Description:
The complex is a heterodimer of chains A (487) and B (462). Chain A has 487 residues and is an alpha/beta fold. Chain A has two domains: 2-231, P-loop containing nucleotide triphosphate hydrolases (Rossmann fold, 3-Layer(aba) Sandwich); 249-486, P-loop containing nucleotide triphosphate hydrolases (Rossmann fold), CATH 3.40.50. Chain A is built from 17 helices and 24 strands. Chain A has a six-stranded mixed β-sheet with strand order 6-9-10-3-11-12, sandwiched between helices. In chain A, strands 18-21-22-15-23-24 form a six-stranded mixed β-sheet, with helices on both faces. In chain A, strands 2-1-4-5 form a four-stranded antiparallel β-sheet, with helices on one face. Chain A starts with a strand and ends with a helix. The mean pLDDT of chain A is 84. Chain B has 462 residues and is of the alpha/beta class. The radius of gyration of chain B is 29 Å and the shape is elongated. Helix content of chain B is 65%, strand content 6%. Chain B folds into two domains: 47-157, Response regulator (Rossmann fold); 164-452, ABC transporter involved in vitamin B12 uptake, BtuC, CATH 1.10.3470. Classes of the chains: A alpha/beta (487), B alpha/beta (462). At the A-B interface, helix 10, helix 11 and strand 20 of A face helix 14 and helix 15 of B.
Amino acid sequence: MQGIEKSFPGVRALRGVSLTLRGGEVLALMGENGAGKSTLIKVLAGAHLPDAGTIELDGQPVHFRSPHESQRAGIAVIYQEFNLIPGLSARENIFLGNERSRAGFVSRGSERAVAAELFQRLGLAIDPETPCRRLTIAQQQGVEIAKALLLDARIIVMDEPTAALTPPEVDRLFQIINELRSRGIGVIYISHRLDEVFKIADSITVLRDGANVGGCTTSEMSRGKLIEMMVGRQMQDEFPRRVPAVAEPRLVVTGLRRGQAVRDVSFSVGRGEVLALTGLVGSGRTETARLIFGADEREAGEILLDGQRLTIRSPRDAIRNKIGLLPEDRKTQGLVLAQSARDNFGLPNLSWLSRWGFVALRRESKAFAVYRDQLKIRLPNEMQRVRNLSGGNQQKIVLAKWLARQCEVLIFDEPTRGVDVGAKYEIYLLINQLVAEGKSVLMISSELPEVLGLADRILVMHEGRITGEIANARAATQQDIMALAIR
Amino acid sequence: METEKLTTGRRVRTQFMGIVSYGMLPVLLLLCIYFSVRTYSEQQREGADAGRASAAAILKQFGPHPCVVIVAQKDSPPEAEFVTTLQQQLRSSGATVAATSIGDVGDARRALKTAVDAGKPVDVVACTQVPAAWPLWKNLAKDWPNLGKPKIMTPPTYMWPNFLTLSNLSNITERISVIAIIAIGMTMVIITGGIDLSVGSLIALSAVVSTLLIQNVGGGQNATPMVMILSSFAGIAVCGLMGLFSGAMVTVFRLPAFIVTLSMMLIARGIAQKLTHSEAVADVPASYKWLGLGADLFNIPNCVVLLLILYAVAYVLMHYTVLGRYIYAVGGNSEAARLSGVPVLRVIIFTYVLCGLLSGVGGVVLASKLKSGSANYALMYELYAIAAVVVGGTSLAGGEGKILGTLIGALIMAVIQTGMLLTNVDLDTQNIVLGVVILLAVLFDAFKRSGFRFPGLRGEAN
C-alpha cells in the first residue's frame, strides 16, 4: 500500500500512509485510537475507497470497490465483532456464501470433512456441527480463521484478536499465527498490548494522526521507543506511581452467591485502596461485580459500606448508596450510543441536575464541562453523539458519569479495554487520584501487567470462588497470578 | 450578565436549528405549495369585505355621486354586514342609497318601488351572489321603465388558492386532530422501542364508555356539563388502565409489545361492542359537540387548541424533563440505562399508560365531533398514527425521534388527503397515493441518513 489518503467530512483520516507486508510475515500495526488503523484496514478490505494512493498485490495494482472484491483477491479481515451467525453451526458459517452443493442441495458430508480438516490443521478441537453461539470466543475466532483459509486468503488481518481471550487462549492463537506464517500467509496484527506485539510480530508499523511515524523490525524496537512513537511524547512510566495506603475496610462483601457463577465470595476493599479482582474470563469476576451493583439478583450475601448494611436490589439502590460501575462493555452497557456526550453524562446524575422533574440544562452543561476538562475528553461540542467518538473518549465519558455522581466505591470492569496508550495512562492517573481522595476502587482486568502495576492487593478467582489473595501486588509476578487462576 | 445573554442567544439559535432539522418540513411545505398552485381559482367575497370592495368598484365606475339600490338575502349575518358596510361607505363619500332590501324577491321589488318613488334615476343595483341570479333583473328596462336602466353588480371576486382558505385549513387540522393526538403517545412508545396497536380500539372504547355514562347514568339529553366532563374523564381513565395492563405485560412478563397490544386491540374493541350491542350511543345533549366542533378562541376549533396544547406539553416533556431524557435513554440502550440507575420498568409502563390516556382523549374528541359513541370508531387509526410517527422521522428501532416531527408527519398525511379532495381525486386513488407517499417519505429519510446511496446494497456479493 503506497501513499493512501482518505478523508471524511471534517476529518483527514489518512494522509499518505504506506505499508508493506511480505509473505509469511507478521506485521503489527500500532497506534492510538483514532490514529487511522481501522480506516487503513477498511481501505484494504474494500469497505472504503481511498481518495489517493495505490494498493499492489504481488506487484499487480488492484482496486477494491467492495469487500467482496477484496475477499476474492485473498484478503481476509477478522474484526473484533465476529461476522458469524450465532444460530448456524461452525461448518455452516465457514461455508456461508460458498456452499458446496450438488443440484442446489448442500452436500453436508464433503463440507464437514473440509471443516474438520481445517480445524485439525489449526489445532482446534471444534465439532463442525456445534452452533456458533455455543462456542467460546477463542473457538469462534478459530472459525473465522478457518473461513479465511477456505477462501485461500494470502493476507489475514486481525483487529485486536486477543481482547477477549484468556492467557492460555492467547498462546493457542499465537501457535495458529505461527502456523499461518509457516504457510507463507501474511498477517497484519492490530493490538494495544505491547507484550503480545513483541512476542509475535516480525515487524512493527506505527501510525499517528493518519500518517506513518515509523516502521522497523521488532528486534530494533524497544517498549519505551514504541510508546513514544505512538503517543508522540516521552512517557516515564507505563503505570504512574502511588504511595499505597494502609487502609481500614470500607466495602465489605460476605457470602455472595449466585448459581454456579459466584459461589460464596467474601472480601473487603479499604479506604484509598485499589483491589484487583482477576482470573480467567468466565471465572466469576464480572458476575461478582454485577451482584454488588445490583445488576443481577443475588441468592445470598451481605454488602456493607462503612459498617452499614446496604439493601441493594437494583442498580438504582447501588447508585443511591454511592456505588458506581464502569461495565466491561461500554458500547452495550455503558453508553447510549445514539445520544450525545452530555446526555450520557447526565443520565445517572439527573437526580441532582434537575428541579421539579425538569433537567437543569445549564447546570448540566457546566458540570459536564468540568469533567470534560478534568478527564481531557476531546469533543467538538457537548452534543456530539458518543457513537462517533474513539474508544478512549467513550470510556472517559462513562468515567465522567460516575465521578460526577461522587461515588465512594467505584467498580471498574476492564477499564482500559480497547483504549489507546495515551488514554490508558490518563485513566491510571485518575484511579490513583480517586484512591488518594479516600475512595475505594475494585478493579477487574485481564491485562496482568495492568493488575500488577496498579493494584494494592489482588484477589484471584476461579470457577466462581476466590482461590487466592496476593497481599503485596507490587512484588508479585504474572506467574503468581496464573498459578492461582488456572489450578 | 453579558455572558448570560450570549448563552441564551446561542441556545435560541440551536433551538431554531433544531426546528430546521426536521427533515420532513420541506416535504410538507412543497406539498402545500403544490396544492396551492393546483387549486388557485376565483374566490367570492362575503360580508363587510364584500361591502367595501363593492363600494370601491361602484365609486370608481360611476363617479362620486351615484344612486344605488342594495339587495341581499335575509337570515344571514354576512349578507346583513354587506348591506350595512356598503351603505355606510357609499353615503360617506356622497352617494345616494335610494333603497336597501334584505329579504326575498318581494322585498327587492318593494325596494325598487321605493327608489322609483324617490324619483332619482338609479345607476347601480348592488347584489350579493344569490339575489344576482333572480329572474327579476332579466327584463328590468321593460318592467321598471322609470328606474333609469341601472347596472346589476355583484361584489368583485379575487384569485386565491382554495387550499389556503380558512375553511380548508381548519378542515385539515380538524381532520388530523384525533390521529395527531394519539400519535403523541405512539411516538413515545416507539421511542422506547415498543409499539401500541391498541390505540384505535381504545378510541372506540373511550367514546363508548363516556357516551354510555352520559346516556344511562348522567340523564341523557339533560346531562349537565359537569356530568359530561366526569364521563369523559371516566372514558379516558379506562383507556389509561388498559395501557397500564399492556405496559405491565410488556415489562414484567417481557412479552413482545406487538402481540400484547394486538390482543388489547381485539379485547378493547370487543368490550366496546358488548357494551353497546353494536349500536350507536347518541342520547347526549347538543352541547356535547363543544369540544369537537366548537371554536371559541379566535375561530380556532377547540379540538385544534387541545391538540396544540398537548403537543406543547409533550415537547416540553420530551426535551426538558428527566422523564423525557429517560424515555430516549431506555429506547437507545435499555441495559446501559438500567446500569445508570434509570427506572426502566416504570419508564416503559408510563409510556403505555400515557398512550392509553391519549387514546382516551382522542375517543372523547371523536365522540364529541360525531355527537355519539360507537364501537366502530377509529378503525385502522393505529396504522395512521404509526405512519404519522414514522413519516415524522422517528425510528421504529427506538431511541431516536422527535415529537414535533410526528405533528409534521400527521400534517403531511392530512394535507395530502384534503388536497386530493380539493383536486377531485377519487377515493380509491387517494389510498394508493397515501401509501406511496408514506413509502417515499421513509425512503427519503433512509437515503438522507445513508448519504444518498443504497444502504442495503453495499458489500453485497455480485
